[in-house]
Amino acid sequence: MNKYPKIGIRPTIDGRQGGIRESLEEKTMNLAKAVADLISSNLRNGDGSPVECVISDTTIGRVAEAAACAAKFEREGVGSTITVTSCWCYGSETMDMNPWPKAVWGFNGTERPGAVYLAAVLAAHSQKGLPAFGIYGHDVQDLQDNTIPEDVAEKILRFARSAQAVATMRGKSYLSMGSVCMGIAGSIVSTDFFEDYLGMRCESIDLTEFIRRMELGIYDHEEYAKAMAWTEKYCKPREAADRNRPEKAKTREEKDQDWEFVVKMTLIARDLMTGNSKLREMGFQEEALGHNAIAGGFQGQRQWTDFYPNGDFTEALMNTSFDWNGIREAYVLATENDACNGIAMLFGHLLTNRGQQFSDVRTYWSPEAVRRVTGKELTGIAKNGIIHLINSGATTLDATGQATDANGNPEMKQPWDLTQEDVEKCLANTNWCPANRDYFRGGGFSSNFLTKGGMPVTMSRLNLVKGLGPVLQIAEGWTAELDPEVHRTLDERTDPTWPTTWFVPRLMPERDAFKDVYSVMNNWGANHGALTYGHIGKDLITLASMLRIPVCMHNIADVDVFRPSAWNAFGMDKEGSDYRACSTYGPLYKK
């Protein structure tokens, strides 16, 4: 699971020897080295390691050198490529013929026609049905200048970030723990989608596997003792008052047993996804393997939660960037086995390396409705209305917003930037509410917190449409801080035992789906959404185009849309060209 793909850098060159090629060798290779350094200095894999680049052993002037480069990249585990050049090259002889994500940077200089090669080879990619991203700097550079302009660097990094996500997913699994939850369509897992679009396989286990492992002791008992000690220190003291009716409330003894149960659930869910070598030492060879899952979902309701404690604690802790073992990369575990939302979470996680928030897109509150219910006005960024994001206490604790940047602003950090102080503040601002036993008859504990306002965030969702296939929705915006009385009144109208995030999307009056906050809610394609820290809509659009998934709703400026150059041939309207190109090329892994 920790063997990450690499990005191949292909320095192409004019193959004519006797004066031309020799004069360009150093320049071309220096550009390749600059691109590799840019990527490795700015992008990290989920474990914090720099994204590794592999440069061709030689510049590529003819097809034999292109073939040698391809062979090296296959040995090295390359999953995408960037071709760089400062001059004219023989396009069809030097181009990358692999079907993986690819980009070409043609140096904008006048001494040698790098831009001419860029145009020619992009035409070749389009003619051969191998879409490539074209990168062309806005301003002319001098031939001896090996720096990467800011606009070029931004596109290289956006391509690399998305391409690395595509390559990291390939060959991994989505693990369904249980099956369809309460008729939610997103939990009807489409194996065709995972295989054809993402290059992933779908694995599944019956939820009785949790009980089998608990009863037979198939978990790390030393880690369980450590996990319980941590839970006793940080979670049980934050247990909130029981809001259940007296006849439904569990006894203290039963609640203590539930704590033990949900901690074991968390250990087992993780082991099911990624395996655990400790189980091999205990004699459980098969269980030690795991399912090679980069993402998963827990069915929960109702087959499980009508009888056993719910999965809220497990889902919350796994989606968080820390647990009893310290600070670590967050897992991706979708509530209610909503695989469509789980994939949106996975996209956000791979692009940012941050914990992802799973929520119901529960309620649009208009300013008028808030005034009627609370007697108060919405103010600040919330003045035009808000969307209440809330679900059954199963979202990342990073979403408390209690971690802060150098200026004291709330942030959901990458794990290598988290401090123990951040961790303890997130835990100290999370309550654990005895589960609402009208919903969860088996009990358990739901996390409860209020997300701090002022964080830039992006909400996304993947939907499957019969006859069309997958589509992606994107809404950039911010978390909002409400008057405490307004929050309390609105929160009490739903389930106050769950975590709340007040979300305000960025409006774009010229787009119907973003003309007001109501329209965003009204056009959202499902009951769930994945929330990611930061404004990453541009990256999501680029990633979706690599996977041939059209974007049906977004509030990103057209100038920031970066897709393969072939998309330009499918019409002048960007939304329509996206649909037509994705339909023409089809899923990335379609056989």
TrEMBL record:
Cofactor dependency: Mn(2+)
Annotated compartments: Cytoplasm
Documented EC number(s): 5.3.1.25
Domain L-fucose isomerase N-terminal-1: 4-171
BP terms from Gene Ontology: D-arabinose catabolic process; L-fucose catabolic process
Domain L-fucose isomerase N-terminal-2 residue range list: 172-353
UniProt keyword annotations, A-Z: Carbohydrate metabolism, Cytoplasm, Fucose metabolism, Isomerase, Manganese, Metal-binding
Cellular-component GO terms for this entry: cytoplasm
GO molecular function, one term: manganese ion binding
Keyword match Ribonucleoprotein: no
Pfam families: Fucose_iso_C, Fucose_iso_N1, Fucose_iso_N2
Lineage: superkingdom: Bacteria
Residue intervals of the L-fucose isomerase C-terminal domain: 389-554
Catalytic activity: L-fucose = L-fuculose
Active site (record annotation): 336, 360
Pathway: Carbohydrate degradation; L-fucose degradation; L-lactaldehyde and glycerone phosphate from L-fucose: step 1/3
Residue numbers binding Mn(2+): 336, 360, 528
Function recorded in the entry: Converts the aldose L-fucose into the corresponding ketose L-fuculose.
PANTHER family: L-FUCOSE ISOMERASE
Family: Belongs to the L-fucose isomerase family.
Protein name: L-fucose isomerase
Lineage: Bacteria, Pseudomonadati, Bacteroidota, Bacteroidia, Bacteroidales
